[in-house]
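User: Okay, second chain of the day. Same drill as before: sequence in, structure tokens out.
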Amino acid sequence: MRKKLLALYDDIDRRTHATAEEHAWWPCRRGCDSCCHRLAEIPRLVRAEWELLREGLDALAPNVRVEVDAKIAELAAAEREGRVPRHVVCPLLDEREGACRVYAHRPGACRTYGFYVERGIGLHCGIITEAVAARSPDEEPIVWGNAEGVDYALARLDGAADASAAGVSLTTWALSSSSCSSEVKEPPPPEPGDPSSPSSEM
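Assistant: Same drill. Structure tokens below.
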């Protein structure tokens, strides 16, 4: 599965790099983290994606890993309690640098976003929509990638017939992984008298 996943990633990266090189104004570059601040849901990954991502997590400096694990744990608690925000901030994002902490190991959805379309609908943010609309009419046409093809390829790696049924959330993978840092775990219940406890009296 790993070999097939890496081949898929290589194909995606070649396409996205070609698009960015052909259109110098393309905004998807280091420092632009708009999409990472506005995820529509907690990232979903198939097993092969998680195994590669876990390698990136395991390679992080200990203090950085603690920070990332804390964010994943916080997101997992929100998921469990039904309070996931409308726009999810990716826990793998270095907000100070505006860059992914595990960029080389990032999932397929992160690689295709901004460059691929699904049934004619662009999978990108308003920044790209505006940039595309403002481009010179003399430019070469934009060749968008096929997101459905990528989803199907990932589903096959997961043994799923339907792409919508493939993969599980990042938080689920992290909490179930035996090699994941001990920081990623369910938070303890609040102590009696703690203002955050729903049973506390004011």
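Confidence is low (pLDDT under 50) at residues 185-202.

User: Thanks, on to the next one.
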